[in-house]
Design goal:
about 300 residues; alpha+beta; 10-stranded mixed β-sheet; two-stranded antiparallel ribbon; 6 helices; 12 strands; globular
């Protein structure tokens, strides 16, 4: 199955999503993990190892299988196969959000430029077959695709696998669907060429009106609680290209014969002048989420 991060902790920052970091709670640089292990051709389902990932206390979460009104899911989204560091975000997302809205959340949280096609896939955690690009293979793998209506969509899904419009189905529709028996796993594939697979691990639910306990403004509906890893570069060539780009920055000019560093700084759609694979800003992410999903914006969308 998609590789789960092991032996690592999220960079957890206690913050007001629209305010300042606590003076004594600065994120710490993570040390690189041990060397890569060879990937097995068959992967067994596994739960996320980050049992302490959420900054919310036990009093602010409830079981994923206990529906409550006006609640948010706490979801750890891991960019599959990223290492040294892992790239992942712990997000609080309303159960009522459509997958079209979840797409927008992920674009902000992972600082993508939204310049490629995407799709969601749903499978179950008890799948024991082979995986390709982080997604189950074979007739018993993916149970459902969820995607945007697009006249230029090239497809790629099996004809016997149902596909839903991302504006017509919500997170709750999937996670509370009895046919999945509480074992639904959601994958978000962005850029069919580089094939960036984001795998969802459902951590739990935030209690209704639990924003104060998580130090978030009462009116804020979606926000990031924790994370790890600098955002990945657009059009870098998938995981191999991303690892190569990080190596070029680490080795300097002599280790960059193709001038990949200059490409990232000057031409990459989401590139930056400075690069540190461990650096990311929870404040920047939450500022963008607060703007994009402000109460005023959400009221306008609900009224359309």
């Amino acid at each position: 199955m998609p590789k789960q991060p092991t032996g690592r902790r999220l960079t957890t920052v206690r913050v007001n999503p629209l305010g300042e970091r606590d003076a004594n709670a600065q994120p710490k640089r993570q040390a690189p993990s041990a060397s890569k292990q060879d990937k097995p051709t068959q992967k067994q389902p596994a739960r996320s190892q980050h049992s302490t990932a959420a900054t919310a206390s036990n009093d602010t979460t409830s079981s994923p299988t206990q529906p409550t009104s006006n609640s948010n899911y706490l979801i750890l989204v891991h960019l599959d196969d990223t290492e040294d560091p892992h790239v992942q975000r712990l997000l609080s997302i309303p159960a009522s959000f459509t997958f079209a809205q979840v797409h927008e959340v992920l674009q902000v949280a992972f600082n993508w430029a939204d310049c490629h096609m995407h799709r969601f896939a749903v499978w179950t955690s008890d799948f024991k077959g082979a995986y390709m690009n982080g997604m189950p293979c074979g007739p018993n793998g993916v149970k459902q695709y969820i995607k945007r209506e697009d006249p230029f969509d090239l497809g790629g899904e099996s004809n016997d696998t149902p596909a839903a419009n991302d504006t017509n189905i919500t997170l709750q529709d999937v996670y509370e669907d009895p046919k999945y028996g509480g074992r639904a796993v959601i994958g978000y594939e962005y850029d069919m060429g580089d094939s960036w697979m984001h795998v969802f691990s459902l951590v739990g639910r935030a209690c209704p009106d639990g924003n104060p306990q998580m130090r978030a403004p009462a009116g804020l509906r979606v926000f990031c609680l924790a994370g790890e890893g600098h955002h990945v570069a657009e059009d870098c060539g998938g995981i191999p290209g991303w690892d190569e780009l990080k190596a070029c920055f680490k080795k300097g000019k002599r280790g960059d014969p193709d001038d990949r560093r200059a490409w990232y700084k000057e031409e990459c759609m989401n590139g930056e002048k400075d690069f540190d694979p461990y650096k990311w800003s929870i404040l920047d992410v939450n500022e963008q989420l607060a703007t994009k999903f402000s109460p005023e914006v959400m009221e306008e969308e609900d009224g359309e």
